[in-house]
Amino acid sequence: MIPLNRNSILTILSILLLLLFVWYSNSHLSAYAIRIWENTAIFLMLAASYNLINGVTGQFSLEPNGFVAIGAYVTAILILTPAQKDAMFIIEPMVPWLKNLHMSFFPALLIGGIVTALVAFLLGFPVFRVRGDYLAIVTLGFGLTIRVISNNTITITNGSLGLKGLPSYTNPWWCWGWAIVAMIIIMRIVFSAYGRAMKAIRDDEDAAIAMGINTFWIKMIAFVAAGFFEGVGGGLLASLTSIISPTMFTFFLTFQLLIIIVVGGLGSMTGTAIATILVIWGSEILRFVEQPMNIFGLHIPGIPGMRMVVFSVLLIVIMIFAREGIMGQKEFSWDALFNLFKKKAKTV
To answer: Are 229 and 120 in contact (CB under 8 A)?
Structure first.
């Protein structure tokens, strides 16, 4: 049980304030703003999960697009009714044992996460036989393999046509509810004995082995936990977009998450939260640079894709002045915030 000291009370109040804003956003914001708000929560969960492997455990893995795809397909198949599957699978009918499966959104999300975690567990055995760049190459190949499988298992995934017209259950409550749960569980892992063992592996794996840490199973815990939340995030994305296809789960998705955790700070979950807001909201705010504009009498035509150029330049600037990311390996703490105010009060 969490002791109710000052810091715990402030954390609980912050979560309640966030939930109050979720309630406000659900009924007062535009559909466009709500979509960005929902994307922010989903990407926060995905990036925090990814940071548990890359930042906290120090294993350079490139698997998120594969795990997100598995969670998305499992959840989508479970929430579609048999009639919808019949209408959707026009090239070849779906296999009967999957066609008749149907359930509500929450158990479908849970099963999507569990199936992805099981795949992560099985994948961990061959993957953790290698380290460093070799691990990155193996996990990159896993993501490509999932994409090829989803393209060719037509009786399960509908191949390149994908699954369309998925029930739209995802809303800010689902997204932020799961994001908060994921952040609490991941933070509890990071600050537990398992988290300290993960950081020891990150700092020096050989030294961790010499100290008696079972590095294989510690890495496996990080991999499976991340796989579960990435699978759930895939299910939320599937219901949010109402359509999934193999082309949605390319390496670009992994690249986006990699940018977020590097900008926020490898190993910092609060840094990941800050970077998620900057990356998701920043890329939307910069849409104005793609519109035609006049600057000091000079007419600049609208250039599609210009916002990504500007965004990339801003990221380069951030990385030049904060090479370890915004938070580095540190976490936000209420004590540090109050100490900062005390120092300012003394200087005044």
So the answer is: no
Cα separation, 229 vs 225, whole angstroms: 7
Alpha helices in the chain (DSSP H): 6-28, 31-51, 64-79, 82-88, 96-99, 105-127, 132-152, 154-157, 172-190, 193-203, 205-210, 215-241, 251-264, 269-285, 306-321, 334-347
Q: What is the pTM of this model?
A: 0.91
Name beta bridge partners: 298.
295
303 phi-psi bin (left φ>0, alpha ψ -120 to 50, beta other): beta
At residue 274, the pLDDT reads 92
Task: Provide the pLDDT for residue 68.
Answer: 95
Question: CA-based diameter of the chain, in Å?
Answer: 74
Q: Give me the residue label for tokens 């700070």.
A: 265
How many residues belong to the chain?
348
Tokens 């970077």 — which residue?
A: 275
164 pairs with which residues across the strands?
243
Instruction: Please tell me the predicted confidence (pLDDT) of residue 2.
Output: 54
Cβ-contact 118, 231 below 8 angstroms: no
